[in-house]
Structure formats: structure tokens, C-alpha cells
Write a structure and sequence with these properties.
With 313 residues, this protein is α/β, with parallel strands linked by helices. It contains ten helices and 16 strands. Helices cover 27% and strands 29% of the residues. It starts with a strand and ends with a strand. Bound molecules: NADP nicotinamide-adenine-dinucleotide phosphate. NADP nicotinamide-adenine-dinucleotide phosphate binds next to helix 1, helix 4, helix 5 and strand 10.
Length: 313
């Protein structure tokens, strides 16, 4: 099969398309014929070698975590799908493989593709929607009527967080550059703030501050968090671990770190929201597999609106 691979750690040039053996699904896996995949910052970090402790030094490495496609083979222990079913999902851990014609996926890490969206759109959903859902629901305990602020609101995770917070009945303040404010209002944001112009709170207190972009540390946000407010970060940095540890016992206001997990039940929730027209995938651009280098370059601009998708066919 054709697969995008990383041939050594480095810049986008280390990506190339290789003929690789088609994976053989184990008994608890399905083989998916991938129709589309999506790029995440995680892919670019792995490519640069930031996580080489986990990804090792055996090249070529497969790449990509988000996929949408059709089930091509079903392991003996998998009972909830059949060959030909359209599915979408996310690989867990550090071994990618979604940017390829076929990928083997464990049971519980995929579910039926949402109806009414293309494979390209479905591939834009898993990692970012699960991150937003797990951060807002599991870590921050979102409830109707809460004031929620999303920093980095127009990117992959942010554009899902704004929509999911609105579905959950929150009032949403979105932080992005001004050029994305109309877009964020179209997703339901109640007010938008340009990150280049100072005051975020404007007298407001937030029950949840979701720092998706990773440049608003807990200590800088504390004054605008309500008494039992929660700050959640997506970005693994030393100050995040420190804030999480310190606030665990010594503060009403809590700091949390979300680490996304691939969960079939959460993918099913996202599918229902998409099918009901409540949540929409946001696709910034679509590249063919052969142009995966360009896709990584776009991802690394840090100004993508929603997702970069790889169309595989
Ligand atoms: N821990 C986890 O499980 C987990 C899961 C998912 C993602 N992450 C991490 O979360 C981060 C965001 O991921 P993502 O996929 O959402 O990234 P992304 O799509 O690349 O985010 C791009 C967005 O960031 C915004 N942005 C740029 N500069 C900004 C600034 N100074 N202040 C606020 N926003 C700014 C941009 O808005 P403008 O274009 O308007 O400037 C753009 O829309 C990454 O570091 C990623 O690795 C972690």
C-alpha cells in the first residue's frame, strides 16, 4: 500500500510516500481502507523528533492519527462492525499510520462515520473533537449557563470547543485574531477578543478557561477565573504540571491538563451531534497524500482555521 512515512527526524522534507506492507489486523482490530486522514500538531512534533523517547529510532515511521474510511477486514474478536461500513476514528498512542491507504485500528477507537458529511470532513473531527469534549466535560465539568473562554478558538481544537461549549449551553468568549471573528460568531461564539489587544476579562469571570493555544498560563488567568473556576491546557509544559500539582490541594481554582484518549463512546456522541446539525467539521484545506509535506508546512503556520485534511481516495 502507499503510505506517508518519516525517514528521519527533521523538517517537512523527511516526509515521503513509500510502498509499505498492508497491515494485518489482529483479532481485536479492524483494517480500514482510508479515504481521508487529518494532520494535527502532534504529527509535526513527532516528525521533528520531539517525542523520540516514545516514537523510537526505527525508520521509516508511519504518520497520522485521524482517519475516515471503510472497513476492509474484521478481526475475529470484533463484533460491532462489518466489512464495508463507513467509519471514522483516531489511533491512540505514538504509532501513527492514518496517512496511508490502509490502517489497522483497535476496537473501541472508531465508530460509524457521521451521516451527511464526506470522508474528508469526517477525518477532520476525531482528535480535535475528542480533545475539546474530554477537556470541557471530564476535566472542567461544563454545565449550562457557565461562562467559558477558549483561547486559540479558530484552530482545530478551538473550533470544536466553541461549538461543543455552545451545545452544552455555555456562554462562550473566543480568543483569536480579528480576521477569524466572523467565523467564530458563525460557530456560535457570544463574543470574540483579538489576542493582540490586551484585556480578556473585561470585568467578566469565567468558570472555565480553555487554553488551547498554550500561551495563557494558569497564573495569568487566575484573576479572571471564578472562585471555583477551572483552567484547562492542551499543551504539555513544565508550568502546566506545576499548576496542576499546586492547585490539586491548595486552591479552589483548579488547573488541569487534558491528554486526549480515543474512545468509541465519545466518537459516537460527536457523530450524533454532527448528524443533528449541531456540530460541523471545519476544513481549512485538503491535500492529496503526495502533498503531505505542504500539509505539514500549513499546519506549522499556527494559523490554520480548523483542519488540514489529506485526501487518499
Ligand atoms: N494534550 C492533548 O491531548 C492535545 C490534543 C490536541 C491538541 N493539543 C495541542 O493543542 C495545541 C493546539 O492544537 P490545534 O490543533 O488546535 O492547533 P491549530 O489548529 O494549529 O491552532 C491554530 C490556531 O491558533 C490560533 N493562534 C495563533 N496564534 C495565537 C495566539 N497568540 N493566541 C491565541 N490563538 C492563536 C490561530 O488563530 P489565528 O489564525 O486567528 O491567529 C489558529 O486558528 C497544539 O499545541 C496541540 O499539540 C494537545
Amino acid at each position: 500500500m502507499k503510505a506517508a512515512t518519516i525517514t528521519s527526524y527533521g523538517p517537512p522534507d523527511v516526509l515521503s510516500i513509500h510502498d509499505m506492507p498492508t497491515p494485518r489486523p489482529r483479532s481485536d482490530e479492524v483494517l480500514v481502507r482510508v479515504r481521508a486522514a487529518a494532520i494535527n500538531p502532534k504529527d509535526t512534533f513527532i516528525r521533528k523528533g520531539r517525542f523520540k523517547r516514545f516514537t523510537g529510532r526505527h525508520f521509516p515511521l508511519l504518520t497520522g492519527f485521524d482517519f475516515a474510511g471503510e472497513v476492509a477486514a474484521v478481526g475475529a474478536a470484533v463484533t460491532d462492525t462489518t466489512v464495508g461500513e463507513a467509519v471514522y476514528g483516531m489511533l491512540d498512542g505514538w504509532q501513527g499510520g492514518a496517512c496511508a491507504e490502509y490502517v489497522a485500528v483497535k476496537a473501541g477507537r472508531f465508530c460509524k462515520k457521521p451521516e451527511g458529511v464526506s470522508f474528508d470532513e469526517a477525518a477532520a473531527l476525531p482528535l480535535v473533537s475528542l480533545t475539546a469534549l474530554q477537556a470541557l466535560r471530564n476535566h472542567a465539568g461544563i454545565a449550562s449557563g457557565m461562562q467559558v473562554c477558549v483561547n486559540g478558538a479558530s484552530g482545530g481544537v478551538g473550533s470544536m470547543a466553541v461549538q461543543i461549549a455552545k451545545i452544552m449551553g455555555a456562554e462562550v468568549t473566543a480568543i483569536s485574531s480579528e480576521q477569524n471573528h466572523d467565523f467564530l460568531e458563525s460557530l456560535g461564539a457570544d463574543r470574540c477578543i483579538d489576542y493582540r489587544h490586551g484585556d480578556i476579562g473585561r470585568g467578566r469571570q469565567f468558570e472555565i478557561f480553555f487554553d488551547v493555544f498554550g500561551n495563557r498560563p494558569f497564573r495569568s488567568v487566575k484573576p479572571i477565573l471564578s472562585r471555583r473556576g477551572v483552567w484547562v491546557s492542551t499543551v504539555i509544559q513544565p508550568h502546566v504540571f506545576l499548576s496542576v500539582a499546586l492547585t490539586r490541594f491548595f486552591s479552589h481554582r483548579k488547573a488541569k491538563l487534558v491528554v486526549v484518549k480515543s474512545r468509541g463512546e465519545d466518537l459516537a456522541q460527536v457523530r450524533r451531534w454532527v448528524a443533528a446539525g449541531l456540530l460541523r467539521p471545519i476544513v481549512h484545506d485538503v491535500f492529496p497524500l503526495e502533498k503531505i509535506r505542504e500539509a505539514h508546512v500549513q499546519q506549522e503556520t499556527k494559523h490554520t482555521r480548523g483542519k488540514i485534511v489529506i485526501h487518499i481516495g
